[in-house]
């Protein structure tokens, strides 16, 4: 019989505040953390708003040497992983380090470090032939995504499997699913997992400007992210990280751990259709949802809440609405659905893990976070997208989904262990 995997620790670095309590306060109050970009001068770009994390690495326990060595996204990952380990109640000195591993996701890796180092070695873009002698001695770590898993493993004392998962905007779901698989198959007893990204950089803005995927609502940054709203104009870039401690159910119960949820089901599909486009019928996402529910041994009627991808582009919103109707049938109209990207923006690969954190906290508090800025629902998005205000709602089983460039479609079911049989 496969081992059952549960989540016993959460850590978050997010726009609006670092730490799980600040993250939940923002979401449950329906506040937004989107604003005009302050990390650099964005005046040359079409989209000039983002959801930035007010992050002080020294205040959150990183040493000057760690700050010098780590890219901003890696710093997010390490701080969130340390919080998750502390929240789990596990003592790093007590568990078998060789049976503890790391699976961490990222979409764009050390973009911040690479961008800043290029500016240095190219003399702010003036040199065609860059001068490598001015580069940071840690530039190699920025180029090699494995540095994410390495730094997190060092931070939590894990000496078992260490992996980086990079599947675009579904990385934060897929990395957690991979961690669960390692526990189920017996390769590890404890996994620290999640995802981190810090993509608010000139090069990222330029890329999304080119395809007009990001919003042009620069004069309304606080309300610029509008998933499922008829007035949406694209997504708002974000940044951040979320991390989790995963372990086997009986082991967690034996040590008296607080169990947030069981990772009950997961599936991923690819549309094999277009690098950035989506089929309007949502068939691939619907297939991932159906398979995840089957693995969890739950019916659509058992779902209490859906944490949507909800990026705020018309293409995604219509695709996602169609997928819910196809996979959940009539229950799609009865299930509360919301997008937290309306409040924290879209941090690419890491947002899947941040949405898992939001789902777990919704289960913990029996409160569904709202879709902020949803004043004028798109008539074609006619499901219950929980506009503006959080809703008290018994929440024992949650579906969270992700959709990414390249055609990736992932779905994960989180449930209280007593909601399903062994």
Question: What is the CATH domain class of the largest domain?
Answer: Alpha Beta
Q: What is the CATH superfamily of the largest domain?
A: Thiolase/Chalcone synthase
Task: Give the total of domains.
Answer: 2
The first-to-last residue Cα distance is 9 Å
User: What is the number of E strands?
Assistant: 16
CATH architecture of the largest domain: 3-Layer(aba) Sandwich
In this structure, how is the largest beta sheet organized? 11 strands, mixed
CATH T-level fold name of the largest domain: Peroxisomal Thiolase, Chain A, domain 1
Give start-end ranges of low-pLDDT stretches: none
Category from helices, strands and their pairing: alpha/beta
How many helical elements?
A: 13
- Oligomeric state: single chain
Average pLDDT across residues?
Answer: 93
């Amino acid at each position: 019989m496969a081992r059952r995997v549960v989540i016993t620790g959460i850590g978050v670095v997010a726009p609006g505040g670092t730490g799980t309590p600040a993250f939940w306060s923002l979401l449950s109050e329906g506040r937004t953390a989107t604003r005009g970009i302050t990390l650099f001068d964005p005046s040359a770009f079409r989209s000039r708003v983002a959801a930035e994390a007010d992050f002080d690495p020294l205040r959150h326990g990183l040493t000057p040497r760690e700050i010098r060595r780590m890219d901003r996204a890696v710093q997010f990952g390490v701080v969130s992983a340390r919080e998750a380990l502390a929240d789990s109640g596990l003592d790093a000195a007590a568990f078998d380090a060789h049976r503890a591993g790391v699976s961490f996701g990222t979409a764009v890796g050390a973009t911040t470090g690479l961008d800043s180092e290029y500016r240095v070695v190219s003399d702010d873009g003036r040199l065609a032939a860059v001068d490598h002698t001015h580069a940071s001695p840690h530039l190699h770590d920025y180029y090699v995504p494995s540095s994410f898993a390495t730094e997190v493993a060092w931070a939590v004392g894990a000496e078992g499997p260490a992996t980086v998962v990079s599947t675009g905007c579904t990385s934060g779901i897929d990395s957690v699913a991979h961690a669960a698989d390692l526990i189920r198959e017996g390769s590890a007893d404890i996994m620290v997992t999640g995802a981190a990204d810090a993509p608010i950089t000139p090069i990222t803005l330029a890329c999304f400007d080119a395809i007009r995927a990001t919003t042009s609502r620069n004069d309304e940054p606080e309300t610029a992210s509008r998933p499922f709203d008829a007035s949406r104009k694209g997504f708002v870039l974000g940044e951040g990280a979320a991390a989790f401690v995963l372990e086997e159910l009986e082991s967690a119960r034996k040590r008296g751990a607080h169990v947030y949820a069981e990772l009950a089901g997961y599936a991923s599909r690819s549309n094999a259709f277009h690098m950035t486009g989506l089929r309007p019928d949502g068939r691939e996402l619907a297939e991932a949802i159906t398979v995840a529910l089957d693995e969890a041994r739950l019916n659509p009627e058992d779902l209490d809440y859906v944490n949507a991808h909800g990026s705020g582009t018309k293409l995604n919103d219509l695709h996602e609405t169609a997928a819910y109707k196809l996979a959940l049938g009539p229950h799609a109209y009865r299930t509360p659905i919301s997008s937290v990207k309306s409040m924290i923006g879209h941090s690419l690969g890491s947002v899947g893990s941040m949405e898992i954190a939001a789902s777990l906290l919704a289960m913990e508090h029996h409160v569904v976070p709202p879709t902020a800025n949803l004043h004028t629902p798109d008539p074609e998005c006619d499901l219950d997208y929980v506009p503006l205000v959080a809703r008290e709602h018994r929440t024992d089983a949650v579906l969270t989904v992700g959709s990414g460039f390249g055609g990736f479609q992932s779905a994960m079911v989180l449930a209280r262990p007593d909601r399903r049989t062994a």
